[in-house]
UniProtKB/TrEMBL annotation:
It comes from Botrimarina hoheduenensis. One of its GO terms (molecular function) is metal ion binding. It is found in: Cell membrane; Membrane. It comes from the Bacteria. This is Magnesium transporter MgtE. Keywords: CBS domain, Cell membrane, Magnesium, Membrane, Metal-binding, Transmembrane, Transmembrane helix, Transport. CDD domains: CBS_pair_Mg_transporter. InterPro entries: CBS_dom (IPR000644), CBS_dom_sf (IPR046342), Mg_transptr_MgtE_intracell_dom (IPR006668), MgtE_N_sf (IPR038076), MgtE_transporter (IPR006669), SLC41_membr_dom (IPR006667), SLC41_membr_dom_sf (IPR036739). Residues 139-201, 205-261 form the CBS domain.
């Protein structure tokens, strides 16, 4: 948070310095103005915005983070001028307006919508009708539509007249009389043909246009934009009618949201609707407690597995020293494999049909990594067990081999399970990011103990 202007802003607000507040909102870049206002309360922020003209007010407000926007709208609507705040919301780009309304209470939304112009209200309701996470829910309808019959001069004139209303003017989309998408034309092309004003834009437009369907998953749309390096992607319906566009800044928001979701899922948590600090502590506790409970049960099963080998531990107590090593090696290798496969599924680099290749690679990886860890583990275990006592002599070199053999088997088990489980959950229609790591941890913990003690019984108890 930038505090450079905060004392001055608070003094101007307290003194009601209208000229000073107006100069602040007009003279400073909108992004910087929003940064300087981060430390202000929602009420004080509104007092500052009131001294800006409506266009500038919307511009600065748009750079507030989404939580501050929601707080400001809620507080102002309930205590001050509902009509003014309704107009501010209506002046936002359509996609930003819908995102903001989705964070507000339903009662407040019902109070704001009737105060909007009929066209804005209709557009808002239509966009809110698309399910969350679809292309339609993040698109904006403020897009340049050019008629197929236009000439270069007519297209430039249209763009000049409507530039302030459009989300972007870099690209315009050519449609027929029924609003079906026919092609796209860059503003650069129109300017380059300025000296040929009568040339039809049909001769300049690009007909092979990459599009998204309104019900497409937003993550797949983001992947498409990244793959084709697009500044914007048009959204069409099943009849190829142009509904709107998704711009690159909205795609960045989608990618950031998806990355946050994947990080939470990998940690065994469902995504938060309102962020960490704005979520109720009980909601966080329930969210985190679900998978902690699963892991707790897995730990109990591990304890039960250990209890079944009490007699073997009494005969060779040095085996206890290496239980954490065995469990962590298998769990860490399994988590690595699961993370790589989940990322591959997310990026589209791995598909369900690749299961055979994935398992072969993870088997080879497990053998390679397991052999390396086993080599280090053998010499480390041999050195750590050289202390002797009358009650229990040091294990022989052959007995110490229990540790490296177990490490090899456990790491192989971890990599194979880590590679297979995400594919299995994907096949079952369950989010692999949410399910894989907790299951890998539970399975490898129990499997590690069973493998460890089976090898120990064969090489120590059996030989003894």
């Amino acid at each position: 948070m930038n505090t450079l202007y905060l004392p001055e802003l608070r003094e101007m607000i307290a003194a009601g310095d209208a000229p000073g507040l107006r100069e602040f909102t007009e003279a400073i870049n909108a992004t910087r103005a929003a940064e300087f206002m981060e430390g202000l309360t929602a009420e004080d922020s509104w007092k500052v915005l009131l001294h800006a003209d409506p266009e500038r007010r919307v511009e600065v407000f748009a750079y507030f983070d989404e939580h501050k926007q929601a707080d400001l709208v809620t507080q102002v609507a309930r205590s001050e001028d509902v009509d003014a705040i309704s107009q501010l919301v209506a002046d936002l780009p359509a996609d930003d307006r819908v995102d903001l309304l989705n964070q507000l209470d339903d009662e407040l939304v019902e109070e704001l919508l009737p105060r909007m112009a009929q066209e804005d209200r209709r557009e808002t309701l239509r966009l809110r009708g698309f399910p969350e996470g679809t292309a339609g829910s993040v698109m904006t309808t403020e897009v340049g539509r050019l008629s197929i019959g236009m000439s270069v001069s007519e297209a430039l004139s249209f763009m000049s007249d409507h530039a302030e209303e459009l989300e972007t003017i870099y690209t315009s989309y050519v449609v027929d009389e029924e609003n079906r998408l026919l092609g796209m034309v860059a503003t650069r092309q129109l300017i380059a043909h300025y000296n040929q004003p009568n040339q039809p834009i049909a001769e300049l437009m690009q007909r092979d246009v990459v599009t998204a369907r309104a019900m497409d998953d937003q993550e797949s749309v983001a992947d498409k934009v990244a793959a084709y390096d697009l500044l914007a992607i048009p959204v069409v319906d099943d009849d190829r009618r142009l509904l709107g566009i998704i711009t690159h800044d909205d795609i960045l928001d989608v990618l950031r949201a998806e990355a946050t979701e994947d990080a939470l899922l990998a940690a065994g948590m469902a995504p938060l609707d309102h962020g960490y600090l704005r979520s109720h502590w009980f909601t966080l506790a329930c969210n985190r407690g679900m998978w902690l409970s699963v892991l707790f049960v897995a730990a109990l099963l591990t304890a039960l597995a250990l209890r079944g080998y009490e007699e073997e531990f009494q005969k060779a107590s040095w085996l206890v020293l290496f239980i954490p090593l065995v469990i962590s090696s298998g769990g860490n290798s399994g988590s690595q494999s699961a993370t790589l496969v989940i990322r591959g599924l997310t990026d589209g680099q791995v598909a369900l049909r690749d299961w055979g290749r994935v398992l072969r690679r993870e088997l080879l990886m497990g053998l390679t990594l397991g052999a390396a860890l086993a080599t280090v583990g053998y010499f480390s275990a041999y050195a750590l067990t050289r202390t002797t006592s009358e009650a229990e002599p040091a294990p022989t070199a052959l007995e110490v081999a229990v540790v490296p053999i177990t490490l090899l088997l456990v790491v192989v088990c971890g990599t194979v399970c880590g590679g297979a489980l995400p594919l299995l959950f994907q096949r079952l229609g369950v989010d692999p990011a949410l399910m894989s790591n907790p299951f890998v941890a539970g399975i490898i913990d129990i499997a590690g103990i069973v493998i460890y003690m089976t090898v120990a019984m064969a090489m120590i108890v059996g030989l003894g």
